[in-house]
Amino acid sequence: MKKILFIALVTMLLGSLVAQENWEYSFDVKGTLSQSYYTDNWDGEEESNINWLLQGNMTANKQLLDWFRSMNTLKMKFGQIYDTEKDAQGMQAPGWEAPRKSDDKIDFLSLGLLTFHGWVDPYVSLRLETVFEGESKRAFDPARFSQGIGASKIIIEEPRLGLSTRAGLLM
Fold this sequence. Notes:
The protein is mainly β. It contains 1 helix and 8 strands. The N and C termini lie close together (about 10 Å).
């Protein structure tokens, strides 16, 4: 059963790549840079750090057939923190420590909605969740792949506003 569902979902993705006209796209990118500084006395025992974060959210949707809608979402986020160096006594030293990761996420969801225009419509989904750089310093490690099936209800569908709900099972 899993193999059949996997083949159907891969076919769904390939079909959505072939028919590339009239897609509804949404794309936003956000960047944040902040610097903080803290001290509680005049002796120079201060702490300072710099944080940066870049995140993007992208969607691509299309009614491929009268009865099939492809809905794709990609969310990515990556950020780092730079702290000031400390000497052996715990005092601030000149320079910065090596950066450490604060956020790291890649989340791709592809949803195939069978639009029969009933009270609820069935769906199948593929989801890939991974990171840019894992604990082993390898890209995209670890990765989690899941497939889902269930029912969906689109409550509001307007050009700049949408509300839907889904209930289903993950495999």
